[in-house]
Amino acid sequence: MITCSIIIPVYNTPETSLRKCLGCFCDAGETFEVIIVDDGSREETVHILEEYRGRIPLCQLIRQKNAGVSAARNRGIEISQGKWVVFCDADDEIDTGKLRDLLNKLDPQTDFVYSAFAKVRTGRQIINYPEELQAAGYTKKLLCHPNMYGTVWAKVFAGERLRASGVRFQEDLSHAEDTVFLLSWLKQAEKTVYCDEPFYTYYVSADSAAKKNTDAVNAFLRTFDRVREELDMNDTKTAGYYGSYVNTTLMIILANYIFTKNKPAAESIRELRDLLRVPVIQRALREYDRAETSFAQRQVITALRYQMIPMIRLIFRIYRMRRG
Question: In 3D, which of 115, 109, 112 has the Cα closest to residue 95?
Answer without folding.
Answer: 115
